[in-house]
histidine kinase (Micromonospora arborensis), 849 residues
Amino acid sequence: MARGELRIYLGAAPGVGKTYAVLEEAQRRAARGTDVVIGFVETHGRPHTAAMLGDIEQVPRRTMDYRGAEFTEMDLDAVLARRPEVAVVDELAHSNVPGSRHDKRWQDVQELLDAGIDVLSTVNVQHLDSVNDVVAQITGTTQRETVPDEIVRAAEQVELVDMTPEALRRRMAHGNIYRPDKIDAALGNYFRVGNLTALRELALLWLADKVDEQLDRYRSQQGIAATWEARERVVVALTGGPEGETLIRRAARVAARSKGADLLAVHVARSDGLAGADPAQLARQRVLVESLGGTYHQVLGTDVPAALLDFAQGVNATQLVLGASRRGRFAQIFARGVGVTTTALSGSIDVHLVTHKQAGKGRRAAAVPAALSRRRRLLGFALAVLGMPLLTLLLKTLPDLTLTNDILLFLAGVVGVALAGGVWPALVAALGGSLLLNWFFTPPYRTLTIAEADNLLALAVFVGVALAVSWVVDVAARRTREAARAAADAQTLAAVAGGVLRGERPLPALLEQLRETFGLRAVSVLELAEDASGRPERAREKHAWCVVASVGDQPPCTPESGETAVPVDDRITVVLCGRRLEAADRRIVEAFAAQAAVALRQERLAEEAATARPLAAADRMRTALLAAVSHDLRTPLASAKAAVTSLRSHDIEFDEHDREELLETAEESLDRLARLVANLLDMSRLQAGVLGITETAIGLEDAVPLALDELGPAAATVGTDIPADLPAATADPGLLERVLVNIIANALRYSPPDQPPTITASAHAGQVELRVIDRGPGIPEDQWEHVFLPFQRLGDRDNQTGVGLGLALSRGLAEAMGGTITPETTPGGGLTMVLRLPAAQTASEEPQE
């Protein structure tokens, strides 16, 4: 039985029209005569979606009891018994009621597919396992229902149901997604424009990756090796040489010319496992590539041009960036070089040969270490000097041996010397053996004259074979030693990387692992003072260096106080104490030093971020203080002064009632002024670091009535909708009351008389949100930030009532308590002020599909 096909409609968020689209496809198939049934579709009360069900047969759902409540789920057995050609199963990531045959609906779908039934289904991008954590960061909501990515990737078709954030919010405002009582909360929480934009980008990127996979699979199945320029991909080849940084930056500029282009760096390592490139250079270049948004890759190969082109074609690269050859002109006569060869074989891939400072200067010859130990070389020379004469004496005592036999025995002796001591002892043995063969065993005897041409050829072949064998033995020994060294280096790098990953602080972990690996007494990272940079005489002074990190006993304080100093850049040097390292070890230490510099920069960035936070808080407090002085001091001072001036006036005679009213006005104004001054003093003390905000858990159901009471009779018409189970907010009660009074007074001032403001509250992503909604004229979005500037009252030129709207103060106080105030457009017209404060306890609710 053929397996059924799965078609998935992918959306960025609830309400984009996935279920509507899947039902449209079901209707089209049914109209063509296909046997289609509805296994499970959730309309969420949306009339347009319900209308699309039409007359398609719906398999009755199965009712299940769970914890005293009834739930309905898809009846999997009924659908299997019905055996339609196509089944519509909505919400692929849905979790089934406990007691069902499968925990997840996607497992039900797998069983339908195994039965040969095609399935049409839907899923939102936030329910994909691979992006679940990213969605939680964006929206503040952790999705509990997820589906493995491989299930969706395995679908024969994935169709994106797309809608712009603005269009989706309009659908929400028109009541096409949620019930009216949930619209305001949804628009202010999950359905923010930023959230929807980020989710839409996630869906597009995820689908683009699947399309890339399908394209690669198709090209592989069809045997297509040519590059298809569906997306610009720039590959830069790195040799581990000093020109790598120039090539990377050049390739990054090439990639930046095309939006969405990929940057990939590749290094071709020798397939025999021997070290060729400088690991320190490669480590620094890898960091540079990743900092520019690219990826680093390493492939094995003996033929570098072929390996580069195989990699480039495998990733569907469109451009390849290579460095001009460092080989000298004389060397290029005998071999064209990697760049020229790659260009000739590149086909449709554009190749950029980038010049650099090292081009054409030749490769600096590295010191070649001896293949064998000094002891073995001495043993080889001893065998050559003593063994060849002893072999001659032995052969003289043996009768009836021909010259051929003598040559073979001498050749065996040379091979033995080569195995023991390498090429130079073998060369001495070969030359000495040829002279002994000529003198004692080649007619005429005891002369260096060779009478027969055959004997001359035999001696020449003997010398040539002896030298060739000794050279092969020496190269094999050298390669064995290099391979062992490379394996040890790789093991060391892996150990250091593991130590860094396991450590809570990367830099100390890296230095400690380095010290243990090479058996050092201490390791320090030193930094040169800024005034000493570029001044060698200052760099030699002890006080010019600062120890930024160290491990071990008596760490060095200057580069001269250690056995080995490895400069990372002009100012940072890693110094090692305990023993002097070999040249081969230094290359590995340079790679570690480059990583240490990266870890140091990361630590400093974290410290700067931690330092910036209290400075930003202090700046917010200072701004709030100045705004409060300029705004809110005026009104109570003016009222109190006017009342007192009137009472002291001799021009007007006030009766008892008027006198009481003026005294009451003065008293209220002075009380308000006293409260304001007290708050400002508290804020100034807090800014000076001598007073902390008294943050407590306070319920908005308690704070809002206090603010309304302070506003007096004008606030009697304000409607409130604060859930009983709303978590408490973390705030200072006095400051919170001032914030609420200001934003509610602002809403009252601009609300029509027949449409008073409404106050709603909800919890979202560890925050408590209070929304003050008015139906007034509203404010254009491009002027939202202006209302928070001091002395700004948009559309209000009347200064008789004072300047004190206090929105600048309110935002400053909210931010000082760890919250925010942001304006939003009220659906249908008006302005909504959203106050967000940290929740004393987290309450998270997923959006309804």
Notes: Residues 693-838 form a domain with the Heat Shock Protein 90 fold (CATH 3.30.565.10). The chain is about 50% helix and 15% strand. The radius of gyration is 41 Å. The CA atoms of residues 62 and 323 lie 68 Å apart.
